């Protein structure tokens, strides 16, 4: 499980252009954010995504509860959840649902986090795009997340 921040500040990447012409991308630096919470099973590639307006203990608790319910975690199904050491992953207010067992990665080790590999896929349709508002970004991102889950 991991979180990824996306917003109205564009993701600029490589793109095709006519020979002899420089490619242009509309860029308007605006700071409005949206967070993608993603869970992935490294063995099967099965993944689940949530688009959330904030990243904090309350939001993480809601997503964790829903994930446990959707996956059937409990006495009959145990799930090991690999998490980084973010404060909202291990705060005293957080209660881990039955059947979920958090395992924390060592500090500064994103290469060990299986969910890190998802961000290039979620960013793909957003690259070099200008969104007039957060709603337009949310629509495109939600479509991509549904496609990745399917």
Automatic annotation (TrEMBL):
Residues 1-131 form the Tc1-like transposase DDE domain. It holds the Pfam family DDE_3. InterPro entries: RNaseH_sf, Tc1-like_DDE_dom, Transpos_IS630-like. This is Tc1-like transposase DDE domain-containing protein. It comes from Deinococcus radiopugnans ATCC 19172. The lineage of its organism: Bacteria, Thermotogati, Deinococcota, Deinococci, Deinococcales.
């Amino acid at each position: 499980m991991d979180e990824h921040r996306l917003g109205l500040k564009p993701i600029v990447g490589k793109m095709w252009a006519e020979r002899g012409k420089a490619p242009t991308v509309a860029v308007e630096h605006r700071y409005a954010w949206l967070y993608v919470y993603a869970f992935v099973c490294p063995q099967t590639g099965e993944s689940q995504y949530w688009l959330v307006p904030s990243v904090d203990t309350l939001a993480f608790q809601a997503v964790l509860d829903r994930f446990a319910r959707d996956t059937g975690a409990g006495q009959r199904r145990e799930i090991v959840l690999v998490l980084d050491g973010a404060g909202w992953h291990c705060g005293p207010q957080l209660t881990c649902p039955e059947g979920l067992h958090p395992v924390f990665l060592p500090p500064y080790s994103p290469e060990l986090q299986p969910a890190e590999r998802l961000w290039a896929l979620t960013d793909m349709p957003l690259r070099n795009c200008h969104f007039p508002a957060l709603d337009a970004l949310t629509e495109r991102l939600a479509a991509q997340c549904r496609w990745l889950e399917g």
